[in-house]
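User: My instructor asked us to take a sequence, write out its structure as tokens, and then describe one feature of it. I'm not sure where to start. Here is the sequence I was given:
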Amino acid sequence: MMNNFVFPDLTLYLVAILGLLVIWQYYKMQVMTGRILAVDIFDRSGIRMYLYVTPDDSHVCDICAQANGRVYLPSKVARRNFSPLDGQCQRSMPCPGVLVGLYGGWLEARGVVERLRANPKDGSVQLSPEQLRGVVGGSWERSVSAETDRLSIFMLEAMSYEKINQDVAIGNYGYVVVHAKEIRHLMILVPAYLRLTYLLVQAGRGMEALAATEQFEIRFPPTKTGKHFPSKGQRDLMKRREEQLLKGHPMKQSA
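Assistant: Let's start with the prediction itself. The structure tokens for your sequence are:
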């Protein structure tokens, strides 16, 4: 009777299961260290956190300035009527803040993700300007999420460095408007155009600012609308900048 019981097949199955367990444990270790990108079959966006940032200038109201550096879990951002602000923006033309999505596979960003996940009930944490610059200045280019996060990092760096290094901010905004092609990049595209033209005018680079306003009109035709298309107020602002630049007159700046 015992001759009919095939032990080798059972042994092979056990070895295969053991091998899968070893591979799974190795995979978990690699994810925890940030060497590989975790893939959640329920979330193909590649985003583990959202950061709200505003430029450091006098055109930002107190409500929006207080929200600068605030980080949110995607589950909170997905809630109906979500706002990164604790109240209404106090300006007639909304402040130039932007919500930027990141996977965050490098050390400094992983630390923020861990803080968020340790506080799931609130779903948010506050970063100081120094902490935000620490995340942006981390070794993101050597992380597995470098390509996924590249445009988001350029946008965050531009917002954080407008006063510290205007040339870096202009270069980064320029990079974003040229390379933002995917749907996930659309939420940062209009803010990038607005800040780029604003800084170019401030820097006395009128021809470049004019070219950017013209590209803006081509990319966002007046007859088209969409979720991440510019508002009427934003279109009017860019149109005024273009008209003043064409006239060659100095213009009163509005962010």
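For the description part of your assignment, you could build on this observation: Strands lie at 49-53, 70-72, 98-102, 124-126. Try explaining in your own words what that tells you about the chain.
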